[in-house]
Amino acid sequence: MLQVIKDILFEVTGKTNITYDTDFIKDLQLNSFDIVNVVCAFEERYHIKVPTRDVWQLRTVKDVIEYMATLGFV
Q1: What is the pLDDT along the chain (74 residues), one digit of tens a residue?
Q2: pLDDT at 27
Q3: Which of 29, 33, 36, 52 has the highest local Cβ count within 10 Å?
Q4: Containing H/E element for 72?
Q5: Which of these, 56, 64, 65, 13, lies nearest to 34 by C-alpha position?
């Protein structure tokens, strides 16, 4: 799952130094438009819909991995 996240973040942002603790806002300086693009990429790849209320709780790579685990993708 980490590699998938790295690939999506690279496609959207061009950033490569991604770890489990990478914070999307603090470390990658993603704005709300960037975050929406990242979420859309996940939705397309996994054919899911991430509710808006959940999006803003996903602040780090680890948060995304844990969220995807609750959906049965990890």
Answers
A1: 899 999 999 998 898 999 999 999 999 999 989 988 999 998 999 999 999 999 989 999 999 999 999 999 87
A2: 94
A3: 36
A4: none
A5: 13
Residue type present at position 51: P
Q: Give the pair of three-digit tokens for residue 38.
A: 């990242």
The model carries a pTM of 0.87
Task: Tell me the Ramachandran region of residue 29: left when phi exceeds 0, alpha when psi lies from -120 to 50, beta otherwise.
Answer: left
Q: Give me the DSSP letters along 18-44.
A: --TT-BTTTTT---HHHHHHHHHHHHH
User: 23 — phi, psi (to 5°)?
Assistant: -95, 130
